[in-house]
Known about the structure:
Elements: H1 7-64, H2 70-83, E1 85-86, E2 90-91, E3 94-95, E4 101-103, H3 126-137, E5 139-147, E6 154-162
Helix pairs in contact: 1-2
Amino acid sequence: MFSKMKLSTRMNLLAVFGALGLIIGFVFALISLRHSVLDGQKTKIRNLVEYAYTQLAFYDEQVKSGAMPLDQAKTLAKESLRKARYEGVEYFWINDLQPAIVMHPIRQKLEGKDQSDNKDPSGKAIYLEFVKTVKATGQGYVDYVGTHPDTKQVEGKISYVKLFEPW
């Protein structure tokens, strides 16, 4: 079949197939890069939550050693995390297994309120997902969508949640 084609047609086909190969390779490279960036972000988020967890563990040790009562330790731990920020605007929150908000640095009016009906724009009950994750494995990633407070754009989010069992 190729022997009856004109040389210019064969060269054009070769160029088309070469270009397709480059495009396919480029798409796979972009997908791989996206996965690498996402994996790096997930690792960073997990490490930050692990750091916050050490703050709770520190205050729990203060209670166990008799240095302070449990209520004081919980208050100090909440206030410590309320002020903590990373990447300038990102923050930590605490919810219990009900799920009610224990501490939220941005939406303080939600503290003490049940979040079972709090759903993201896609309909996912995110706080129930947080609780489900920690009940199943003690910790893990939860993906959902949120509305950016400034732009009102819906964007994908991922959180890492970890159960602090003593409290």
